[in-house]
């Protein structure tokens, strides 16, 4: 007991002095009841902490239990608040996870050297003084205390039994195919390592036996793997493949149940196979190569393999395919993302194929390809301006959806008394959206004209859903601003989201805007009304910073389709001779693509598809990618591989570039590490995660140090304006006032923002600050 | 919290702090009060469990846990809001049979066990006010608020003095796909998760006010979900909860949206008498003043101290807002400075409010540096010398490079 108190209370020495007669070991003793309670308590705590348990050093658990006098609940709360709190999203906690594990593994590895000293002793009867002498003090920080660890009198047999039981439970609990795959792939690896004569047994026991052999034969490829490790990004190394990672979780709490003070005795080893902790840990270290598991994920070979398939295939793979693929890799030129691959295959450890990469030069492929240009546009405007209806009509008139579908929707809409929303329902597909007649989230849709293939991003107009609108606008090349021309509606819209949306899209870098003056059928196509609106809106758009040449006005009726695809046939509308909406769209140039920059893509959707249990969609903001590429997901810092991908309208493709909307089917990553709003980037040039940044911001409202929500595309995070460093001149950027108390609307200032959690952000990105449901500022990260 | 001796009261208190005050915490919230009262260098006497090792006649040793009372000189105070527990560490300053002088010990204050406190530098006006609040009648149940948005729910308990985030629920909601059923399922499982967490983390055995807040329809739908779950499970209590729950609009699901929640008419109507609604209103008033930039609202220690010194925070609307964290673990000199500030404002006839940093309005004040004031008359140059700091040269150079300005 004393040891953990020792750590906490520095009076340990004093105590020793005071009770000078007592030696270290005697201090260790807990009364037998206390031992039992400690053991039970620890188990309970670990169980309650679940996967988070690894964050809490065991000593701390015991310490707290003692401290709270075995009150498990209190202990848990304390531990959570101390170690796990502030409750972070699991994905975020991933990177720190690796470090302690490694430490522990190292610690346990070094501890092994003492093991032989115990071989001659009957297990469970090691004189305490021998333990005490043999455990070197520097190992303490590893979190796993040696001989004098808390439950000193717990027999090893009990420990092993407990550990095995726990493990067995966990294993049986997760009977998923993935799990099986994991095991199988591991076996594959082992087949490479150890000779094949030991047919792998499935399950825990089998694995243990195998590992022991690996160890015994001294075929620990640790030395081989070691040199590659520096090449693999740090966070990656210990748990590079999700398969291994998945496996770690269940095992993780185990050492806590069985304190790894030393190697089990020879007797225990004979009985149960090798010890339950250190040797088993080691293989994870050893095979920390990201490529092992991939063979079974190879998309064409196994769309969805049954466990049996996996076994057979994995064996076959190792025998034949492995060598070949290694050679192939060696020959290939090194595209940046494959750097690691090559390193590894040179070492001839990686005998399993990666997702097929053709190692294309994506940019030259892209130039070669002479297709239509692609462009995305966001449809914005005040609530009920008719955005969704207009897009529904557009899709209908372009024959992207057929009349039958719309008729069906109309019938359904009629049933709940929302007939007028039938066209909007083409895009508003969610139950809540339909029953309430309001768009909640971005709907994407596609259509093609002769020259361009367009992606529609239909944004919600309601102010509550502006975060979603921001997400949509961040993916757009240009915008359609829909304005309700009917009496009164225009005016209230101008006060509402017509203005806020315009400010937002402008400050997010959209410079081209097409204003669709809608519902002109309700005012009998009054040219006067159109002119009035045109006048007012262009005044305020130019004030917002749009250049007049980038603003276009089209009088339309979204409901009836006038001037969308076809010129209006209504005689009352004959005064208009300009372009239709689609013609205006075609006349718009998409913004320049940052093709040569490092890869960046914000995840706008995570889903499960037949191709992969984890598929993501989004628009590539910068750079390019291809099949087989390694990707880094931030903020989790986990690596994934592109198993296959689809571009734009779902065409399977080998590569994709900035500006394209893609579906990426990922492999080798646990879904908990991938969330909407996360950023996928190039592992060689990753985006950093920050929790504080400075921003050159244009204020839309009074700014002062205050709580704000930070939005960047789908990503949003809570934080606060920590300080206002200076007010800047709008044009020259010169400091006009330092440390102002407040910033007035319309002024540019440099503000410092801190966030509650780390998020991926980098200089040059545009973010929006909102507070109390209002957009208060937007600006550029410095 | 109450005085252990019923005969004691605020008026019998020894302001020098030399004789102890003996207090009995009776509710978890009292731990928070104790957290405010106990400061470094104070003396604290409370029940402790100490481990003692004895040697038997055979030379074997046994370790026993003994119950004893210990007096320590406080060095640090750790408060765990989620568990409402308070750990006070320091060195033993009164020897007994189990401990010797100078040994380190951490006292864990316990409910329904008295503790004695000697204030090292006496009871000043701020600590007296805190004690007064501590021993005042408990004004009622903590209110539970669930602030949510699609895929995120923060379950909070709002008591008189603090807002405790009990649990954060997150769910990945699949976005829309053709058919639309996926998302519906996603929301339902999000509601399911939220409800389960709510019932697990908050005790509803006694009815307590429940607020559901969100942008859009999330809160409303969640309430609907509670209702239908209540019917499905034929759980009368859940049905009741759903029926009594108040749905409020908030702009996000983050905890700081509680500000909007607390000032919504729905909440004002039911919780008018709660202290925190008043504080929320004061903070709003401050922000409004700051917006007007009329020289009557200032934040940050320096300008506020100047304004107080000039007597600008006095009779006729002067308000000093200061976070209680200023009075917690400060060195005595700094503490005295802020206590003097409070006293001066009171003397001038102004209102001095010590806000709880553990409340949303306190958090808002925190963003402003934890201290702000509304002045009775405008002063414009309180931040003058701060403007002077720093060199301009480097700035203009950088700006020239950047050329065209953003946005
Ligand atoms: N008369 C007439 N009504 C229209 C026209 N366009 C849309 N509407 C009606 O306006 C209402 C709102 O249409 P929506 O398409 O849902 O509006 P929205 O802008 O998508 O709304 P949110 O997405 O919720 O912001 C529906 O009842 C439509 O029938 C039009 O050109 N003429
Ligand atoms: Mg809509």
Automatic annotation (TrEMBL), chain A:
GO biological process: cytoplasmic translational termination; regulation of translation; translation
CDD domains: EF1_alpha (cd01883), HBS1-like_II (cd16267)
Entry-linked PANTHER family: TRANSLATION FACTOR (PTHR23115)
Catalysed reactions listed for this entry: GTP + H2O = GDP + phosphate + H(+)
Family assignment from sequence similarity: Belongs to the TRAFAC class translation factor GTPase superfamily. Classic translation factor GTPase family. EF-Tu/EF-1A subfamily.
Subunit structure: Component of the Dom34-Hbs1 complex, also named Pelota-HBS1L complex, composed of dom34 and hbs1.
Species annotation: Neurospora crassa (strain ATCC 24698 / 74-OR23-1A / CBS 708.71 / DSM 1257 / FGSC 987)
Location of the Tr-type G domain: 372-593
Keywords: Cytoplasm, Elongation factor, GTP-binding, Hydrolase, Nucleotide-binding, Protein biosynthesis, Translation regulation
Region feature Disordered, mapped onto this chain: 215-282, 323-343
Polar residues composition-biased segments: 266-277, 333-343
Protein's recorded name: Elongation factor 1 alpha-like protein
Gene Ontology cellular component annotations, sorted alphabetically: cytosol; Dom34-Hbs1 complex
Signal peptide from the UniProt entry: none
InterPro entries membership: G_TR_CS (IPR031157), HBS1-like_N (IPR015033), P-loop_NTPase (IPR027417), Small_GTP-bd (IPR005225), T_Tr_GTP-bd_dom (IPR000795), TRAFAC_GTPase_members (IPR050100), Transl_B-barrel_sf (IPR009000), Transl_elong_EF1A/Init_IF2_C (IPR009001)
UniProtKB/TrEMBL annotation, chain B:
InterPro entries: eFR1_2_sf, eRF1_2, eRF1_3, eRF1_Pelota-like_N, Pelota/DOM34_N, Pelota_N, Ribosomal_eL30-like_sf, TF_pelota
Entry GO CC: cytoplasm; Dom34-Hbs1 complex
Cofactor(s), names only, from the UniProt record: a divalent metal cation
Keyword line: Cell cycle, Cell division, Cytoplasm, Meiosis, Metal-binding, Mitosis
Gene Ontology biological process: cell division; meiotic cell cycle; nonfunctional rRNA decay; nuclear-transcribed mRNA catabolic process, no-go decay; nuclear-transcribed mRNA catabolic process, non-stop decay; ribosome disassembly; RNA surveillance; translation
Composition bias, Low complexity: 396-407
UniProt GO molecular function: metal ion binding
Subcellular location: Cytoplasm
Residue ranges with Polar residues bias: 1-14
UniProt keyword Metal-binding, yes or no: yes
Role played: Component of the Dom34-Hbs1 complex, a complex that recognizes stalled ribosomes and triggers the No-Go Decay (NGD) pathway. In the Dom34-Hbs1 complex, dom34 recognizes ribosomes stalled at the 3' end of an mRNA and engages stalled ribosomes by destabilizing mRNA in the mRNA channel. Following ribosome-binding, the Dom34-Hbs1 complex promotes the disassembly of stalled ribosomes, followed by degradation of damaged mRNAs as part of the NGD pathway.
Name of protein: Protein DOM34 homolog
């Amino acid at each position: 007991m004393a040891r953990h108190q020792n750590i906490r209370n520095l009076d340990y020495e004093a105590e020793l002095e005071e009770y000078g007669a007592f030696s270290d070991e005697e201090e260790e003793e807990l009364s037998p009841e206390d031992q039992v309670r400690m053991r039970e308590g620890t188990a309970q705590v670990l169980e309650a902490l679940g996967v988070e348990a690894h964050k809490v050093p065991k000593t701390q658990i015991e310490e707290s239990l003692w401290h709270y006098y075995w009150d498990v609940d209190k202990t848990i709360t304390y531990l959570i608040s101390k170690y796990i709190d502030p409750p972070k999203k699991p994905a975020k906690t991933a990177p720190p996870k690796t470090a302690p594990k490694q430490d522990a593994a190292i610690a346990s590895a070094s501890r092994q050297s003492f093991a032989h000293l115990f071989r001659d002793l009957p297990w469970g009867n090691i004189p305490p003084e021998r333990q005490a002498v043999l455990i070197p003090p520097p190992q303490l920080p590893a979190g796993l205390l040696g001989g004098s660890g808390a439950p000193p009198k717990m027999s090893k047999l009990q420990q092993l039994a407990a550990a095995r039981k726990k493990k067995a439970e966990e294993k049986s609990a997760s009977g998923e195919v993935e799990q099986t795959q994991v095991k199988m792939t591991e076996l594959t690896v082992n087949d490479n390592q150890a000779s094949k004569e030991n047919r792998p047994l499935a399950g825990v026991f089998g694995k243990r036996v195998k590992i022991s052999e690996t160890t015994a034969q001294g075929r620990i490829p640790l030395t081989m793997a070691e040199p590659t490790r520096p090449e693999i990004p740090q966070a990656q190394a210990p748990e590079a493949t999700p398969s291994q990672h998945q496996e770690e979780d269940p095992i993780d709490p185990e050492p806590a149940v069985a304190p790894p003070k030393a190697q089990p005795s020879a007797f225990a080893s004979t009985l149960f196979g090798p010890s339950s902790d250190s040797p088993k840990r080691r293989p994870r270290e050893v095979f920390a190569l990201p490529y092992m598991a991939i063979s079974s994920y190879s998309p064409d070979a196994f769309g969805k393999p049954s466990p049996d398939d996996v076994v057979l295939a994995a064996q076959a793979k190792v025998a034949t395919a492995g060598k070949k693929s290694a050679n192939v890799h060696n020959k290939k030129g090194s595209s940046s993302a494959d750097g690691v691959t090559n390193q590894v295959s040179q070492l001839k450890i990686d005998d399993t194929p990666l997702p097929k990469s053709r190692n294309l030069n994506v940019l030259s492929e892209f130039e070669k390809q002479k297709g239509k240009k692609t462009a995305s546009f966001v449809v914005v405007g005040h609530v009920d301006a008719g955005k969704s209806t207009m897009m529904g009509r557009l899709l209908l008139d372009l024959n992207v959806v057929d009349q039958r579908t719309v008729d069906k929707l109309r019938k359904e809409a009629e049933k709940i008394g929302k007939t007028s929303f039938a066209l909007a329902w083409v895009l508003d597909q969610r139950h809540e959206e339909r029953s309430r007649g309001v768009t909640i989230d971005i709907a994407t849709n596609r259509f093609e004209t002769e020259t361009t293939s367009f992606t529609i991003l239909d944004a919600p107009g309601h102010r509550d859903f502006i975060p979603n609108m921001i997400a949509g606008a961040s993916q757009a090349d240009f915008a359609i601003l829909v304005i309700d021309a009917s009496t009164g509606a225009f005016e209230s819209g101008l006060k509402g989201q017509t203005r806020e949306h315009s400010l937002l899209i402008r400050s997010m870098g959209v410079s081209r805007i097409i204003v669709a003056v809608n519902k002109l059928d309700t005012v009998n196509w009054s040219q006067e009304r159109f002119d009035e609106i045109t006048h007012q809106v262009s005044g305020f758009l130019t004030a917002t910073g749009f250049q007049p040449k980038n603003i276009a006005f089209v009088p339309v009726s979204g409901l009836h389709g006038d001037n969308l695809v076809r010129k209006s046939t209504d005689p009352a509308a004959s005064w208009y001779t300009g372009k239709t909406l689609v013609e205006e769209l075609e006349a718009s140039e998409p913004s320049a693509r940052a093709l040569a920059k490092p890869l960046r893509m914000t995840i706008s959707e995570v889903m499960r598809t037949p191709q992969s249990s984890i598929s993501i969609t989004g628009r590539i903001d910068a750079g390019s990618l291809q099949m087989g590429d390694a990707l880094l997901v931030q903020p989790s810092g986990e690596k994934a591989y592109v198993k296959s991908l689809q571009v734009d309208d779902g065409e399977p493709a080998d590569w994709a570039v900035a500006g394209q909307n893609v579906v990426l089917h990922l492999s080798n990553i646990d879904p908990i590490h991938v969330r909407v709003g996360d950023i996928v980037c190039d592992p060689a040039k990753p985006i950093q995660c920050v929790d504080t940044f400075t921003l050159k911001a244009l204020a839309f409202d009074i700014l002062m140090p205050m709580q704000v929500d930070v939005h960047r595309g789908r990503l949003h995070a809570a934080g606060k304006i920590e300080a206002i460093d200076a007010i800047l001149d709008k044009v020259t950027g010169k400091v006009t006032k330092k440390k102002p108390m407040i910033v007035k609307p319309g002024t540019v200032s440099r503000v410092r923002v801190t966030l509650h959690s780390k998020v991926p952000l980098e200089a040059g990105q545009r973010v929006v600050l909102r507070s109390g449901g209002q957009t208060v500022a937007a600006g550029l990260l410095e | 919290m109450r005085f252990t001796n019923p005969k004691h009261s605020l008026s019998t208190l020894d302001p020098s702090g030399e004789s102890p005050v003996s207090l009995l915490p009776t509710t978890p919230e009292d731990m928070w009060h104790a957290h405010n009262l106990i400061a470094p260098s104070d003396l604290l006497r409370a029940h402790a469990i100490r481990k003692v090792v004895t040697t038997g006649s055979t030379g074997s040793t046994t370790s026993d846990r003994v119950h004893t009372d210990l007096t320590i000189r406080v060095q640090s105070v750790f408060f765990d809001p989620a568990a409402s527990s308070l750990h006070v560490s320091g060195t033993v300053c009164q020897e007994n049979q189990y401990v010797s002088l100078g040994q380190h010990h951490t006292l864990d204050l316990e409910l329904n066990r008295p503790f004695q406190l000697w204030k090292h530098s006496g009871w000043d006006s701020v600590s007296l006010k805190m004690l007064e609040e501590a021993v005042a009648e408990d004004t009622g149940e903590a209110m539970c608020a669930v602030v949510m948005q699609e895929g995120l729910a923060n379950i909070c308990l709002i008591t008189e003095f603090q807002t405790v985030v009990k649990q954060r629920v997150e769910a990945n909601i699949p976005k829309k796909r053709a058919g639309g059923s996926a998302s519906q399922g996603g929301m339902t499982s999000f509601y399911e998760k939220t409800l389960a967490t709510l019932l697990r983390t908050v005790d509803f055995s006694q009815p307590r006010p429940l607020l559901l807040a969100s942008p859009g329809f999330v809160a409303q739908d969640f309430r609907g979900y509670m209702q239908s779950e209540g019917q499905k499970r034929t759980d009368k209590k859940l049905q009741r909860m759903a029926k009594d729950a108040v749905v409020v609009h908030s702009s996000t699901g983050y905890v700081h949206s509680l500000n909007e929640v607390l000032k919504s008419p729905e909440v004002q109507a039911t919780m008018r008498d709660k202290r925190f609604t008043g504080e929320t209103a004061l903070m709003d008033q401050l922000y409004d003043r700051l917006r007007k930039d009329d020289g009557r609202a200032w934040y940050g220690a320096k300008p506020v101290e100047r304004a107080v010194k000039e007597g600008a925070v006095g009779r006729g609307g002067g308000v000093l807002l200061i976070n209680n964290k200023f009075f917690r673990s400060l060195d005595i000199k700094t503490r005295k400075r802020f206590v003097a500030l409070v006293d001066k404002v009171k003397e001038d006839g102004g209102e001095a409010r010590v806000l709880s940093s553990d409340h949303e309005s306190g958090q808002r004040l925190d963003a402003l540096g934890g201290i702000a004031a509304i002045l009775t008359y405008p002063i414009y140059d309180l931040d003058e010398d701060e403007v002077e700091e720093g060199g301009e040269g480097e700035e203009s150079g950088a700006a020239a490079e950047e050329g065209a300005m953003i946005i």
